[in-house]
Specification:
It comes from Micromonospora maritima. This is Probable DNA 3'-5' helicase RecG. GO terms for molecular function: DNA helicase activity; hydrolase activity. By secondary structure, this protein is α/β, with parallel strands linked by helices. About 40% of the residues lie in helices and about 20% in strands. The protein contains 27 helices and 21 strands. It is globular, with a radius of gyration of 29 Å.
């Protein structure tokens, strides 16, 4: 290690040595001094303030501050040698067993009862007890055999805040702390990119102080101020990006598509067998006004499952068709595209059957275009779209292929936005001479701060009312491991519903043998749990067992497209009693006669996903029932999550819970680009006020200097924090 001055671009091997630098690069993707300085502690431990071991989850990679309570040595059963078991506790009543294999008498002498240390490893479970196998550790204070180097790393934190870093097994937190200390000793911070007026107005410390204090806090107050400044940088970078994009979009031209009296839209409204809800009417007016302007609409339409988004979107499409344009609806799966096609044809009736017997005089055509179309059907569909006879075109990503040309694409409706990549959306938009209007729909409720941060360049409309005729859904957790009789009762309950003439879903997290697809939970589990249940394995067991005699169908993403459509159509037509499926039924599938859903291994699904899934039942006049089957232990975080889903049908409450349990980086798109993100500290739940303030400053700054030409350092900082790939992800439309 050298005492050479360090800047953000200095390679780590010049500062911490080649071997350590290689470990940091290989395990944590940290290559430069800047990478390491922006690798912030995930939390801070204090002697006297202890991690609650009881809150740790099996499978979690953890670092805990704990005290050795007792040690025991016993011979191993399967091989020669001894096993050292060290029980550590945190003072809250929670304990962990640290196990060390082999003859290691020196560890027993070192890990004396009463000693405090940091213990790092992966939480596993053995016979009901949580443990760390062969954890890395560093002991605090007192000195002693083998501790000199370790204490050199942590002694400066004696009685103070001990940073605990996101680490890897080969690079524990105390090694990272040592490297950070070496870098900070010679680090020259960059020029502060934040305008001095913003720093003064918002009472923010300078960047150099923030970067030092977040790693080596002189006090809790100093740490708070450092974190606040660095959170501001993250929020400001995102908001500047979004406000700039919104500013550019507003300046670009689009063809206005105003409503036309006496057209298809008026005819459609006249034949609707029910009244639009007040919410649908308000949102409809907002969208109609957007479409009538000469700038492209970018609007997010969110609403609970069954809130009537499709009717709102169809009315927007008809307004565009009335104005001489075409509308395309992009669905994430062929099953959903085909269902939209059937549903829209039913809603339009004669208005959607131009060229057919009995069509209305001013009808349009509704065309379905998917990858599974035969050659003749494909040629016919291409001609209908290219020549403009098809006013409404529904499809999957097959719509994006070369050779699918529109006569005049005026509106793009994207269903379930999060399932499409930026490149796919851009490819569809590029099929119009001028940017088309864009309506993004999602049934996943979005908390206010997420809407402000992730969808910040879209206008947002929300449908909060359910149309008349929607039935309530009751949800219950079925603890299969603790009470097997409850699972037996669940299958009897399903049979009772089928006996009344209704239908049911059984959802599994996995398809079966073969490569894992996007719709599946991962099958690997190195924490001692069995693999997730699979559709292809569960269906025959149900047919031979508790659901014997019922008509059972199987649906998953690996089936050929025509087979998927045939199964879904058979279920919709009442020819099947039970559909055993993966999450391919999560969005858009509409079978009003289905009243019960049993989700197996429900703890393997996310909160929002479970909420989406249960929205498939209760869509008709009969009440819905959703049973969440799990082997998760009572009191575990997985079980608490399921209890929360069962306790409420308020999607926004559940969205907040989902957000609490996910890494912020996932929400902000870090997983979309596959690149490491510097967006690490911002909490979309806890930092609402800061995000709102950052947005206000961004609007003012971009209004005065749209391309940040007068603030080059800030522009460079934004580019570093929100790279172009992420900026496109954030664009959402």
């Amino acid at each position: 290690m050298t005492g050479e001055p360090a800047t953000v671009d200095t390679p780590l091997k010049k500062l911490v040595g080649e071997r350590t630098a290689k470990a940091l690069a290989g395990h944590l993707d940290l290559h430069t001094a800047g990478d390491l300085i922006y690798h912030f502690p995930r939390r801070y431990d204090e002697r006297g303030e202890h991690t609650d071991i009881r809150s740790l989850d099996v499978g979690e990679q953890v670092t805990v501050l704990a005290q050795v309570q007792r040690t025991a040595v016993r011979p191993m059963r399967q091989r020669r040698g001894n096993l050292l078991e060290v029980t550590v506790g945190d003072g809250s009543g929670g304990v962990l067993t640290c196990t060390f294999f082999g003859n290691q008498a020196w560890r027993e002498r070192e890990l004396r009862p009463g000693r405090w240390g940091l213990f790092a490893g992966k939480v596993t479970e053995f016979r009901g007890k949580r443990q760390l196998n062969g954890p890395e550790y560093v002991l605090l204070g007192e000195g002693g055999e083998g501790e000199a180097a370790a204490n050199e790393e942590v002694e400066e934190f004696a009685g103070a805040l001990i940073p605990v870093y996101p680490a890897a097994a080969a690079v524990p937190t105390w090694v990272i702390a040592r490297c950070v200390r070496v870098v900070l000793d010679t680090f020259t911070p960059p020029d502060d990119p934040l305008p001095a007026t913003v720093r003064a107005t918002r009472n923010l410390v300078d960047i150099g102080t923030a970067l030092r204090e977040i790693h080596r806090p002189s006090s809790k107050e100093a740490l708070y101020r450092a974190r606040r400044r660095l959170k501001w940088d993250e929020a400001f970078a995102v908001q500047l990006t979004l406000v700039q994009r919104k500013h550019r979009a507003a300046a670009s031209p689009a063809r206005a598509r105003p409503a036309r009296t006496g057209g298809l839209l008026d005819a459609f409204d006249a034949r609707l067998p029910y009244e639009l809800t007040p919410g649908q009417q308000v949102v409809g007016r907002e969208i109609a006004a957007d479409l009538a302007t000469a700038h492209p609409m970018h609007r997010l339409l969110q609403g609970e499952v069954g809130s009537g988004k499709t009717v709102v979107a169809l009315r927007a499409m008809l307004q565009v068709v009335d104005a001489g344009g075409q509308a395309a609806l992009l669905a994430p799966t062929e099953v959903l595209a085909a269902q939209h096609h059937r549903g829209i044809l039913d809603l339009l009736g004669p208005l959607g059957r131009a060229g057919e017997l009995g069509a209305a005089s001013d009808a349009t055509r509704v065309e379905l275009f998917t990858g599974s179309l035969g050659a003749a059907a494909r040629r016919r569909a291409l001609a209908e779209v290219a020549e403009g006879r098809a006013g409404i075109v529904l499809g999957t990503h097959a719509l994006l292929y070369e050779g699918v040309d529109f006569a005049d694409l005026g509106l793009v409706v994207v269903d379930e936005q999060h399932r499409f990549g930026v490149e796919q959306r851009d490819a569809l938009r590029a099929k119009a001479e001028q940017p088309p209007h864009v309506l993004v729909m999602t049934a996943t409720p979005i908390p206010r701060t997420v809407a402000m941060t992730v969808y910040g360049d879209l206008e947002t409309s929300t449908l909060s009312q359910l149309p008349q005729g929607r039935s309530p859904i009751a949800s219950h957790v079925v603890p299969a491991a603790e009470k097997p009789a409850f699972l037996d009762r669940a299958w009897r309950r399903l049979r009772e519903e089928v006996g009344k003439g209704h239908q049911a879903y059984v959802v599994c997290p996995r398809i079966g043998e073969g490569p894992v697809s996007d719709e599946e939970a991962p099958r690997e589990d190195d924490n001692g749990r069995r693999p997730p249940l699979a559709v292809t394995e569960v269906a025959p067991l149900l047919a031979e067992g508790p659901l014997h005699g019922l008509r059972i169908g199987v649906l998953h993403g690996r089936l050929p497209a025509d087979e998927k459509d045939a199964v879904m159509r058979a279920f919709a037509d009442g020819e099947l009693d039970v559909l055993v499926a993966t999450t391919v039924v999560e969005v858009g599938v509409n079978v009003p006669n289905a009243t019960v859903m049993i989700v197996l291994d429900a703890d393997r699904f996310g909160v929002s996903q479970l909420h989406q899934l249960r929205g498939r039942v209760g869509r008709g006049s009969a009440a819905g029932l959703c049973l969440l089957v799990t082997e998760a232990a009572e009191g575990s975080s997985a079980r608490e999550r399921l209890d929360a889903v069962a306790s409420t049908t308020d999607g926004f409450k559940l969205a907040e819970l989902d957000l609490e349990q996910r890494r912020e980086g996932d929400v902000l798109g870090a997983t979309q680009s596959g690149r490491r993100s510097h967006l690490r500290l911002l909490s979309l739940l806890r930092d609402t006020d800061l995000i709102r303030d950052a947005r206000a400053e961004a609007i003012e700054l971009v209004g005065d200097d749209p391309e940040l030409a007068r603030h080059p350092a800030l522009a460079a900082s934004v580019a570093a924090l929100v790279d172009e790939e992420r900026a496109e992800y954030l664009e959402k439309g």
